[in-house]
Amino acid sequence: MEVRILSRKFDIADAHLLEVAKQHGAYATLDKVFAMPPADVTDEVKNSGLRGRGGAGFPAGLKWSFLPKGVDKPVYLTVNSDESEPATFKDRYILTRDPHLLIEGIIICCYAIGCHDCYIYIRGEYTTQRKALQFAIDEAYAAGYLGEKVAGHDFKLDVTVHRGAGAYVCGEETALLESIEGRKGQPRSKPPFPAVAGLYGCPTIINNVQTIASLPFILANGAAAYKAYGTEKSPGTHLFGISGHVEKPGMYELPLGLPLLEVIEKMAGGVWRGRKLKAVIPGGSSTPVLTPEEAATATLDYESMAAHKTMFGSGGIVVLDETVDVVELTKNLIDFYHHESCGQCTPCREGLGWMLKIVKQLLRGEGTIADIELLRELCDNIEMKTVCVLSAACTMPVRSYLDKFRSEFVAYATDRPKPEQA
Ligand SMILES: Cc1cc2nc3c(=O)[nH]c(=O)nc-3n(C[C@H](O)[C@H](O)[C@H](O)COP(=O)(O)O)c2cc1C
Known about the structure:
Elements: H1 18-23, H2 30-34, H3 38-48, H4 60-65, E1 75-81, H5 91-97, H6 99-113, E2 115-122, H7 127-142, E3 158-163, H8 173-180, E4 204-208, H9 209-213, H10 215-221, H11 223-227, E5 237-244, E6 250-255, H12 260-266, E7 277-281, H13 292-297, H14 302-307, E8 316-321, H15 326-340, H16 346-363, H17 369-382, H18 390-404, H19 406-413
Parallel strand pairs: 1-2, 1-4, 2-3, 5-8
Antiparallel strand pairs: 5-6, 7-8
Bound molecules: flavin mononucleotide.
Flavin mononucleotide binds at residues 52-56, 58, 80, 82-85, 168-169, 171-173, 206-208, 211, 388-390, 393.
Pfam family, one: NADH_4Fe-4S
Domain NADH-ubiquinone oxidoreductase 51kDa subunit iron-sulphur binding: 327-372
InterPro entries: ComplexI_51kDa_subunit, NADH-UbQ_OxRdtase_51kDa_CS, NADH-UbQ_OxRdtase_suF, Nuo51_FMN-bd, Nuo51_FMN-bd_sf, Nuop51_4Fe4S-bd, Nuop51_4Fe4S-bd_sf, SLBB_dom
């Protein structure tokens, strides 16, 4: 099941060091890339069908082609290394185990889009990862892979690492830009989209770490080789982090399109302690949950997930066993998003707080059936009424818990003894 494209060097000792990485092929694609016209590099990425691995799955090459032509302004690449979605832990493997893969991908992307200044936005809590990344960047400068003449070619490229300060919303691409510019991390209204007016008002491409790290394989081996993995509409591989109630939690690189339950069984050893499966969160906390019956028919690709009205998002699969209290889980979820709301939009700032109050009331045994209906109504009234989708990242999963595990909410509103009776 497992494949090794992005993770090829992950188990090689010291592969984070340039010398070792080079022995295993790092930077080997650059001469080929620099011999191609930049537009051909973009075409190769388009043909590979690579879709953004930050969650939304937007086709990478297509995004690059939105950059306006003939504009007298610098073009920027910002690499999204915020990785703050609960249950997501894939990019950190690239940052620590093969940072030169990311740097090589950055060079390829920057050459294709005509960028000479790249920023990597890394979450504040990633101390070890930032050190590893900066060490690799310093090595790349010293060896001439970054700087005035990249790998001896007539192409200048500087890469700067920018640390976040621990805000989930700064993973949202325009909040990320605000943060780099030194302002409060609050998302911008779109349009204009960053490709037209992004960092410092200039054309900007924002891609996830894994998206960029996929480029060396595509350029080295061609689009067809990449498409040999995955399905027709979801080509390639993905780093899936499997956590929760499984025997072997971990990060696994898999071709897209595999049956979800088979992956949980074969890679992660199945539900732990011989317990029954209650539900699966397919792609990080913001994705609608799947019941065991739904999980049984879902495959890990964009189409199947859409057909199941969910997403594999950032590849963070969470397995929930029969002991999980869904109402408690819903409270934790809302608590997180309420805390992380930047406060710019009223429905998110006030609405998520209101939802949290209601679910806490239910948990205390003081809630009613009308409160459950109100919770559901709030989801509908908050979603898509805000500048960014942080609030939807809360209401979409909450709605799925309310709809699929309604009886558990009802039990709190009816069956449980009220505090004074207990
Ligand atoms: C609240 C919020 C948090 C996000 N966090 C991340 C993140 O940590 N990493 C990431 O790559 N994308 C994140 N995204 C998605 C980015 O806005 C953007 O779509 C992505 O970086 C684009 O890269 P891609 O096309 O390569 O996927 C987040 C979006 C939202 C709304």
